[in-house]
Amino acid sequence: MPERGALPIGVAQLGMAALLVLCAGAVSVGMRLRLERTLAIASARTVLQLSLVGYVLAWVFRVESPWILAGVLLIMTAVAGHAAVARSTRRFAGAGVGAFLTLVLTGLVTTFTVTGVILGVRPWYHAQYVVPLLGMVLGNSLTGVSLSLDTLLADLDEQRDRVEMELALGATRWEAARGPLREAVRRGMIPILNSMTVVGIVSLPGMMTGQILEGADPLTAVRYQIVVMFMIAAATALGCMGLTLFVYSRLFNERHQLRTERIERAKGG
Amino acid sequence: MTLLSVRGVSLSVPGRRLLRDLELNVPHAGWVGVAGPSGSGKTRLLRAIAGLCDADAGEFRLRGTDRQEMAYPEWRRRVSYVGQRAVFLKGTVRFNLERPFSYASVGARFDVAAAARELEQLRLPRTVLEQDARSLSVGEQQRVALLRTVSIAPDVVLLDEPTSALDEESVSAVETWLRARAEAGLSGVIVSHDATQLTRLTTTQLNLTDFSPGVLGA
Prior knowledge:
The complex is a heterodimer. Chain A is mainly alpha-helical. Chain A has nine helices and two strands; from the N terminus they run H-H-H-E-H-H-H-H-H-H-E. In chain A, helix 1 runs antiparallel to helix 2 and helix 7 (173-198) packs antiparallel against helix 9. The radius of gyration of chain A is 22 Å and the shape is globular. By secondary structure, chain B is an alpha/beta fold.
């Protein structure tokens, strides 16, 4: 029987790990990359942010309050929604709210399906499962959703003539928008499809690595990872679809007109 | 009998009034020319009539039926706008000509033989059907786009500088073709810089400067 549980990491071990970063810093100094300052700040941020998250998670897991958990989930989703829109080179009024609502819907639905139905966690909102799973869902579907958003807004903005040409020939807004919508969802799905294709061969996912380091049976870790990949794929697909439909509903009106004047280019975009 | 009637139309762009209280009537098989200096709102007017953008005010009727009582795609299938710059989807001319027939509002089948005949009347060889639409010259594209709209059998076509990219011979081919369509019952509104073209093709003309807010009340 392999030994269960992660090997404890003390301050001394953390200090030794810091030596690895110092090596990287030495390379930077030696080659005059001038990255040592950025590297120091990034390392400090890593320690600070992760420690904070560690304390917050420990507290959330301990108090076991559904309200506090709901607050944490909403904050996570709001940050993800903001990031999805912030990465896009174009935006429109209501894009942030749309991204947030889409992620709330798709992220929470897939996460709770996994905890409540597939894993059968009791209660289904058990924070120890919900928080890390939602974190993985949001972190990954965020990339897809922002790609979709960016693709669609760029398409409608730059190819306005093409959409209007179809409208002028009697196409409904749906007939005219179908092509760009489909392309946007397709583009958003590519990253997750790529990682599903190479998973295990090129990269070992962080969660699976963590479980194996912790002493879990690789086969168990693999099953967890499969569930997680499927969960992320579903959340990404639903998220991309949800957000493109939201954009569609905002940029086409009931008179089947395209309202590209609602699209703004982000600063520096 | 009036086929298309446009009444009390006011148009503006942000910060500027373009047109005020414009009236325009297109009789059955009749053609109306619209002239006016650049920036007077000619394109906006055609787009507003097609319902591609909103007018500040105005009433639009086709055979007496108000546009509000009709679905916009249906209205645009009957009152169809052809932009000055032809736009195509990626694909062959044939694909692009066939495309509108996939819309619910266009309840007909694409007739490729008829399309080939029409192309020849427009001085385009039928071999362009299999060419990439976006690789054609601007003048060729303009004629293909015109055919694409006319082939969905609209009641009224709204043509925005339909021959701006054509040489003399093609202009006269297009004009002959349009006159034949008119004899077959097609109506239209034409915007053109070329006053002689408007007199050749249309029976009534209006100048948008008469409806600019500046001269109102004069």
